[in-house]
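From: lab user (bench 3)
To: helpdesk
Subject: output format question, protein + s-citryldethia Coenzyme A

Hello, I'm new to running complex predictions and I'm not sure whether the block I got back is the full result or only part of it. Here's what I submitted:
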Amino acid sequence: MSPASESFTGPFVDKGLANVVVADSVMSFIDGEKGVLEYVGIDIDTLARNSTFEECCFLLWNQCLPNADELASFTKELQAAMAIPDGLMDMVKALPADTSPMHAVRTLVSAQAHFDTECDDGSPEANLRKALRLTARTPSLIANFDRHRKGLELIAPDPSKTVAGNFLSILNGKAPTEAMERGFDICLILHAEHGFNASTFASMATISTLSDLYSAATTAVGTLKGPLHGGANEAVMKMLNEIPGEEDVEPFIKARLAAKDRIMGFGHRVYKVYDPRATYLKTYAEDIAKDTGNDRLFRMSKKIEDIMFEAVGAKGIHPNVDFYSATTYHCLGLDLDLFTPIFAMARMPGWVGHCIEYLQDNKLMRPRCEYVGPHGVPYTDISDR
Ligand code: SDX
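Helpdesk reply: Thanks, we reran it on our side. This is the complete output you should expect:
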């Protein structure tokens, strides 16, 4: 079945759902042709330069910027929700040290349900409290899993810190510099929300059955993990590490393109121009690469970008959010296999926000399937097969 003509109104197959509008939303606006991303109408570049992750969580969940009192009380609520029950810390310690961090994130997001008496309360008020807990706790659980796998003592979250500050303090066992904390906070802002991307859509499909928010967030983590989606930032860094030197960039990329490989960190289902998040991340990556003696890494990234522009720019394939976040995270001293877990903790407000929004006018998600198999097939007894 396909839309043979304008007047065609029946169901049709749209592989990848590229042209399917699933629902309305007021959380973010994306213009893929102009390269625009707005959170509740505010341009992402403006938010990156002026806002904080906490303020953006309020904006996404309340559809307006908080005034000073609202931001202060929201931040307090978020910080109060950071506390991790002992049983949950024990579960961190029970994980095998060689567990892939994204498997650990999937487990630890799901495990939070066991310590939340409101887990199956689907009221908007309870869901908002769970949204706070998932957003506040997941970063500390990720950072503590990293400490656990390195044989280090776990550290309780410090409710006087920001989400960014808390994550980096636990991860490194010491407070980050102001510049590092601000840089990481900006990365969290840039990754917080992005419409109905695969992981958000998956979480909404889960919540549409009136399942619980922890199940929906767990669905999202499993979906984000794939290298075509959130796993791309880790794949970008692996690719950069694979290229021996600057002089090898061109032959390396051209060979990959000739083999019809996807170059990770490039291309996007919606953006056919530069991803507006990559615009900011590129300038930030250049600065932090210079400050941390990683100029060569940035130069190699820039060279890849130039080669890709020549080769496939005309096809609308440009850097996406994952391309320069790889260099940024590397320069912030973050382990490569933490890049996608960081994407997951940053995207939590988007995931839970869309679930709560969709529940306001819920409809079970259940697409059709075009059956192309045989009919009227007789049952053959096993002795005759
Ligand atoms: C994220 O949706 C979101 O909002 C996601 C995200 C978010 O914030 O949630 O923005 C985060 O997931 C960003 C994307 C991260 N993924 C990658 O960087 C992986 C590499 N990118 C590609 O796999 C690809 O660009 C996708 C999957 C992101 C989008 O691909 P589409 O829309 O399914 O298009 P396609 O794969 O059919 O490609 C169309 C053409 C093909 O060429 P032809 O067969 O037509 O000749 O473009 C080519 C592809 O070969 N192409 C690429 C390419 N991406 C597309 N060629 C080389 N390198 C690439 N990266």
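A quick orientation on your result: The pocket of s-citryldethia Coenzyme A is lined by residues 16, 194, 197, 228-230, 232, 262-269, 312, 315, 317, 320-322 (CB under 6 Å). Let us know if anything else is unclear.
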